Amino acid sequence: METSNPKHETAGAERAAGRPVEQRVAAGNLYRRGGVWGLRFQVNGRCYRWSLGTHNRKDARRKAEPILREIERDGIEEYLRNHRTARRDTFGAAWRHYVAAYLGTNVGPSWRSIQENTYGPRFLEFFGAEAPLGSITAERIEEYRGSRREGKGDEQSGVANATINRETASLRRFFTVLLRWGWIRRHPMTYVQKLREAQPAPRAVSPEDVARVLDATQDSPEHVRRFLHLMAYLGLRNSEAARLRWRDVDFDAGRVFVESTPTNPTKSYKSRVVPAARELLDFLRPLQGAPEAFVVSLPDGSSVAPNTLSQAASKLFKRAAVSGSAYTLRHSFATILLLKGVAPHDAKDAMGHHSLTVTEKYFRPHLLGRQLPDLSFRKAVEAQPATAARSA
Fold it and tell me: Residue 200: pLDDT above 80?
């Protein structure tokens, strides 16, 4: 937050001697770090930096003016006493500001919801909302990880290392942003290492099981049927299928556009085009709505949360006596593409993977027991799992 300048010691000497110190406030200037604007100014030769918590330059200038006026009127010590202590010294206050100023504009709604409603309450309960930021040390964070691993006294209630790593990553990002804003001087998690995770192979099901799941949707709500068909025929992620709009479905060209936007980014932060099978297009064509309407929607046209769709899909998998979840259909889509001879790079693009290494993990030939003949990418997508299973 503040750094001393050894060249200016007059003010400190006068203050130590009990003499009044003339307040000399240098004109502040704006600076930007990590996309967030802040105010940098000098008082009696000492430099101060203050995050304004905004990405807009005009808004930052508007916020900076009253701060400088108040410092000139009341003095820097009084200003820090009135503002910094009340707003920044506690973990709870810093977390609330982080959620409002950073998560609201830098992450997607699903990830923000997880951090705000799941991770946040968990952090606040353990560390304490009134705990000073300086008390959150590497040792305390290790204690938190230990409590999560041990559970609440029950040997079976501890969570997996992968879950702890996701929570730790969220906490690490929180402190990184605070450091960038100038709220803390050093990062408490510099030497906190990632826990070792088990790396199970992606789970997938055979084309026959995919067909059984889709057949089981006949008595399901319409939005669940659409969701599972999109997952099986396009290999989308849950959130991508939930926010797909009719304008993204090109019936003439036989393809679907998966758009990544600043407010709703894909996991790889890239848009992509996925060829659509004729059977999927025939299924969707009579259901087509307005261009801006969601493909997966409730009767009133409102969207459905990805978690809600995932839970409904899990129940349907149990009804079909198939082990898996909605995301298993995405894994199966990738496996079938590779088994049909689709080039790994083409499969990577269709899946929206950032790395080819991730795509190659989905190659599970034991699902069909043999390597299928090589087909072009387009033909491979046309020969979708449900069609292949029903014609067998």
Answer: no
